[in-house]
Every structure is written in C-alpha cells, then in structure tokens.
Amino acid sequence: MAGGWSLWVAAGLLLMAAELLLPGIFLVWVGAAALGTGLVLAVMPLGLLATAILFILTLAAAIALGLRFRPSSSNGLNTPGAGLVGRTGTLLEGDRARIGDSDWPVRGQGTTAPGAAVRVVAVEGTTLVVRALPPPARAAEPGAASAPSPGPSPS
C-alpha cells in the first residue's frame, strides 16, 4: 500500500484534534504515535507486522515522554494542610481545638489553657500542630483616667 503513510498521518492529526474536544491528555499520545508512524512509513515502507510494532513502540515512547515532562501534582489541592495551615482557632479541653466549624486533635507548641487562641502551623496526618497566639491587648477599663485628647487649639 503505497499511500498508507498518509492514512497514518491523517489519523494522527485527527486524534490530536479530538484531544481538543475530549481533554484528558490521552488521545494526543496516540495521535503522536500515529503521526510518527506515518512519517516513518513515508520514508521507509514497512510490512503490516513491522508497522504495528513501530506504532506500539512509538506509542510507548510518546507516553513515556509525556509522563516524564508532566507537571508535578504537588500543589496541595485536596490535602488536609491546604486550607488549614495559617488559620486560627480556639483551644478546647483534651488536646482539641476548634478551627472554623470543626474540632481537630492538636499537638501544641507551648502550653496554653483552654479558650486560648491558636494558629495552625502544620498538619501531621489528622493532627494539627498549633502555636499559641499572644493574648489581645486589653482595652482601657471604664472610669479609668486616660490622657486627654488634643482638642482644637484656641486661636
């Protein structure tokens, strides 16, 4: 079959175009393998068995290449620490803390009493590592003498 290479190239281009409609990064590798097979057949005609082996080897190489240069999936999405580290909460009794609307087992850095404000600094399994926050500055008590505020200056 003298024009068989053009069928492989056309199939490769169609599969790669189909990847745009059905994203999943799979058809692109099959299309690349078909395109590569077609280009080799354009230069050197092969029999049916040799063409099938060439396609399988090209497909394996395309998938291996795609996996090698795949972006890292360590973005923290769907990991317990992704939304908890840096959040603040209230320490409860019995090594637990309320962070948002959930109670979590905690291991503290420093000793604090229940009711103290804590910040999540790390996640170890299902246990949060928390650090006590400094207590908020106390407001002046009512009736206490305070420094007079500077008023408008007499002119």
TrEMBL record:
Membrane topology: Multi-pass membrane protein
Start and end residues of each stretch annotated as Disordered: 134-155
Principal place of residence: membrane
Regions crossing the membrane: 7-32, 38-67
UniProt keyword Oxidoreductase, yes or no: no
Top-level taxon: Bacteria
Entry keywords, A to Z: Membrane, Transmembrane, Transmembrane helix
Occurrences of domain NfeD-like C-terminal (ranges): 83-131
Pfam families: NfeD
Biased composition (Low complexity): 138-148
Keyword rRNA processing in annotation: no
Subcellular location: Membrane
InterPro entries named among the record's database cross-references: Membrane_assoc_protease, NA-bd_OB-fold, NfeD-like_C
Name this protein carries in UniProt: NfeD family protein
Organism: Teichococcus vastitatis
